[in-house]
Design brief:
The chain is built from eleven helices and 16 strands. It has 399 residues and is of the alpha+beta class. Strand 1 and strand 2 form a beta hairpin.
Length: 399
């Protein structure tokens, strides 16, 4: 999902930046602004006022220790791609006027690169490595607002809540784990407000794509190592079998074709795998061997929406029941109604959120659902997988 530009088409950057400062002064002062804040900005400012943050600055900055920065960097799946992106960033002809920042999912700044003159200006704002740059700490800003909105954000000048940040623009893209859909962090590019350029959004998006691609590449390498380590066991195993990692990603399948992922295995918990039926996971080093228990290959789902969403899964002569989130129940019900044709990501976004612009959130939710249920939900388009039959008991109060 591309970064929405903070500058309307055809507007002069200096004139528009001045208008945004006047807008900020009017809205905060309770008078009629020369232009209305964008909905994104209005939502964020409402959150700031509810929190009681000071408009004129002086909100206390919070930072973690150097030891904690090192620990978080080591644990971050983004770490191997950050240095590659720093090289791309520094090769940009305009890098002398920009600051690159990478924060984690808690809004803690872990990496920072840019010209010393821009870094010094950022230091005065507390925009440093180890600083917590969430909305609750520093007001409306691209990092914190991207975390709050779960979407790319670009802010210019007076759109920042704190007046001290008005001389800046900031452009941020959330980075998600392509394996799980979980948020890993934020790529942010910031600089003096009057140096904002339309290409900066594309540069931030490049950083997001690079980091997610690197996480996926490392994931594929781990699956290959798992497949190789399991090869001797597979040679001695007769009948259908899968080798999967701890998240259910398939490193090897034999005897039947399955999708790239099943539900995440757990010890002593039977899995329902479309095409396999009921399966038992057996622990391997760094993964699982999954083999069918019965011949029944149809997976039956019963979704009960009459109270807290409850999903019952039956495969052959075994099954389980589990409470699921309302959002996941809504997705399953929508896919059930869509039938074999399924729904595109845009159509699912429209059904869930009322517009087609929440693709990042949709993909993350479906990824989390597939982690729990595996190949029960197929993709491209989103639909119930072949061999899966779902019945839904609706909430009478929703009629």
């Amino acid at each position: 999902m591309s970064v929405p530009s903070a500058i309307p088409a055809g507007r002069s950057l200096p004139d528009y930046a001045r208008d945004l400062v006047r807008m900020h002064e009017a809205v905060i002062g309770g008078s009629r602004p020369p232009l209305a804040p964008r909905p994104l900005v209005s939502r964020s400012w409402t959150r700031m006022l509810r929190m009681g943050l000071a408009v004129r600055g002086g909100n206390p900055r919070v930072s973690v220790t150097e030891e904690e920065i090192a620990r978080r960097r080591c644990a971050s799946p983004m770490r191997s791609a950050v240095q590659d992106f720093i090289q791309i960033f520094e090769a940009n002809p305009d890098a002398s006027r920009m600051l690159l920042v990478v924060a984690d999912a808690d809004g803690v700044i872990l990496w920072r690169a840019g010209a010393s003159s821009v870094r010094r200006r950022a230091d005065a704002l507390g925009f440093t490595e180890g600083a917590v740059w969430t909305e609750a700490q520093v007001g409306t800003n691209a990092i914190g607002t991207a975390l709050a909105e779960a979407a790319p954000v670009e802010l210019l000048s007076g759109e920042h809540f704190e007046q001290d940040q008005h001389p800046w623009y900031c452009t941020a893209c959330p980075v998600h784990d392509p394996r799980t859909g979980d948020l890993l962090g934020i790529v942010d590019i910031s600089g003096p407000a009057l140096t904002l350029h339309p290409a900066i959004g594309a540069l931030a998006e490049t950083g997001r794509r690079l980091m997610e691609a690197q996480v996926w590449r490392c994931h594929q390498e781990r699956l290959e190592r798992l497949r190789q380590s399991a090869a001797p066991l597979l040679a001695a195993t007769s009948g259908p079998a899968l080798v999967v990692d701890d998240h259910g990603w398939v490193a090897h399948s034999s005897g039947i074709a399955v999708g790239p992922r099943i539900a995440a295995p757990a010890a002593r918990q039977t899995l329902a795998v479309p095409g396999f039926g009921a399966c038992v996971p057996e622990r391997l080093p760094n993964g699982w061997l999954v083999r069918p228990l019965t011949r029944g290959r149809e997976v039956l789902l019963e979704l009960d929406l009459s109270s807290s969403p409850l999903l019952q899964v039956q495969a052959g002569d075994t099954g389980w029941r589990r409470l699921i989130t309302k959002r996941h129940a809504e997705i399953l019900a929508l896919l059930h109604r869509a039938g074999p044709a399924g729904l595109s990501a845009q159509a699912l976004s429209q059904a869930l959120f009322g517009d087609a612009g929440h693709l990042v959130s949709v993909r993350a939710e479906v990824s989390r659902l597939r982690r729990q249920l595996g190949g029960i939900v197929a993709t491209r388009p989103y639909r119930l997988a072949d061999g899966v039959r779902l019945t839904v008991t609706e909430d009478p109060g929703a009629q």
